[in-house]
Task: inverse folding
């Protein structure tokens, strides 16, 4: 099994930055991709960044965060990061880390961390 623990959320003013961390434990060798999602009140959960773990680490971002958010990983620490710059009030949401696992079955979600951007 894989467990994910996020940290780094908080309150920041518009234009500021935050870095979220997602520490994985357990059978981490089964992780082949990781991503960050967010969910604002009354809205669906949406992908904000994704990265493959193997190889060159291809990344994917929606237009809403492209150029402002960066996903990265430290394989030695089994940790993924989300660097968020130029934050906007509309970035306010609970941010969740997700691990896609090799083989059948669902992936694994972290517990979520709140990010609040004040105007």
Result:
């Amino acid at each position: 099994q894989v467990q994910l623990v996020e940290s780094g959320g908080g309150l920041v003013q518009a234009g500021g930055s935050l870095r979220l961390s997602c520490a994985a434990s357990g059978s981490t060798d089964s992780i082949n991709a990781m991503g960050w999602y967010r969910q604002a009140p009354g809205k669906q959960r949406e992908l904000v960044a994704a990265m493959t773990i193997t190889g060159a680490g291809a990344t994917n971002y929606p237009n809403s965060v492209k150029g402002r958010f960066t996903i990265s990983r430290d394989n030695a620490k089994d940790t993924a990061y989300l660097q968020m710059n130029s934050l906007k009030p509309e970035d306010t949401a609970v941010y969740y880390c997700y691990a896609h696992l090799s083989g059948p079955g669902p992936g694994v979600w972290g517990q979520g961390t709140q990010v609040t951007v004040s105007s």
Observations:
- Residues 35 and 77 are 16 Å apart (CA to CA).
- The longest strand covers residues 18-26.
- The mean pLDDT is 95.
- The chain has no helices and eleven strands.
